[in-house]
Amino acid sequence: MGFIDTIKARAKADKKTIVLPESEDRRTYEAAAQILAEDIANLIIIGSEEEIKKNSEGLDISGATIVNPVTYEKTQAYIDKVVELRAKKGMTPEKAKETILGDYTYYGVMMVKMGDADGLVSGACHSTANTLRPCLQILKTKPGTKLVSAFFVMAVPDCEYGEDGVFVFGDCGLNQNPSPEELAAIAESSAESFKMLVGSEPRVAMLSHSSMGSAKHADVDKVVEATRIAKEANPDLALDGELQLDAAIVPSVGSSKAPNSAVAGKANVLIFPDLDAGNIGYKLVQRLAKAEAYGPMTQGIAAPVNDLSRGCSAEDIVGVVAITAVQAQNQ
Fold it and tell me: What domains are there in the chain, each with its CATH number?
């Protein structure tokens, strides 16, 4: 059974309620029809009945709950809660109403905040910033979390590396140029996400253009320092760096470039030094290796809210909803 099939089976075993706020996008309905047919999760789609009926024509989404913010009985409670949570930022009832009625993602986040849904998936037609801003404002970070970050689960077909071709890549979607402390926090969260979703022990490689001092540069120094911080904070975690990509995942190269490393040649969690490297890296693997790329998933938010690439397919949305449901099971 492949990675995403295992995730779907776990989601089915304890069904959660996931909000899909992008009712203007046909892919939302194509994904919803499949999710409902496979019984992966309970779904809430936000929008007016007329717009949803028009945009879902020809697809069976009868099992979904339709919530129209204009008429929904709990909308006023959501408005009141936004005012309460954002009072120090000058939020007024009028502004709160305008915000949540004008932004279905914001409305969906309020449904999660108030316990009417377990998680949210958005981003097929919105930027990462538009998806995550309301989460950071309303849901806040999970207790004990140093940093909210993003990762992709990459499932590479016919691949001998990683965990039978499955990897977690971080951070590929959120933090532009993390400091050593932030990079260490990303590594820690990504290892936890890998263990929760894949079920195997994480082996974390801190990536660079250098392996164990082969190059000298300030960018290398950052990764070296991040590795030191992460090891000190997580002494039982298999983590090492700095490592070039081939030294991280290819056993023969790892044994040559880093012979004393317990991670080199065996890594299944890859931590990129900045967002440029991470974003380019995941898209290269997705397009050239025809990998399944699920994300950017978030880690560190108080409830599971996940972003989508705007180039995603309906099948990608199905996978991210299943992963979000499993994250909700583990909250």
Answer: 3-140+303-329 (3.40.50.10950), 149-288 (3.40.50.10750)
